[in-house]
Amino acid sequence: MQRYHFDLVVDGKMSIDDTGAEFAGDTAAEKQAELGLAEMAYELVQRGAKQMQILVRTEDGDRICEVEARWTVTRH
């Protein structure tokens, strides 16, 4: 098991995950980032967020992946 950290970036403002969580490997941590972002998206969009990312890194600071969601509203 390896510890991964999930830093959240919302509209350019970063929140660092100091605690992290343990996962069996990179693939499991990546899937957790996808699910986590999907769960948070509803609340963040209600607050007006247009772009959000989760940056996944190991305890050593190695970047594993970035999961990103963004919204664009086009009015007619």
Question: What features would you describe in this structure?
Answer:
It comes from Variibacter gotjawalensis. InterPro entries: DUF6894. The chain has 76 residues and is an alpha+beta fold. The chain has one domain. Helices cover 28% and strands 41% of the residues. It contains one helix and five strands; from the N terminus they run E-E-E-H-E-E. Strands 1, 2, 3, 4 and 5 form a five-stranded antiparallel sheet that branches. It starts with a strand and ends in a 6-residue tail after the last strand.
Provide the descriptors you would attach to this structure in a database record.
28% helix; 76 residues; 5-stranded antiparallel β-sheet; DUF6894; 5 strands; DUF6894 domain-containing protein
Topology summary:
Blueprint: E1 2-10, E2 13-15, E3 21-23, H1 26-46, E4 51-58, E5 63-70
Antiparallel strand pairs: 1-2, 1-3, 1-4, 4-5
Short overview:
This is DUF6894 domain-containing protein. With 76 residues, the protein is α+β, with helices and mostly antiparallel strands.
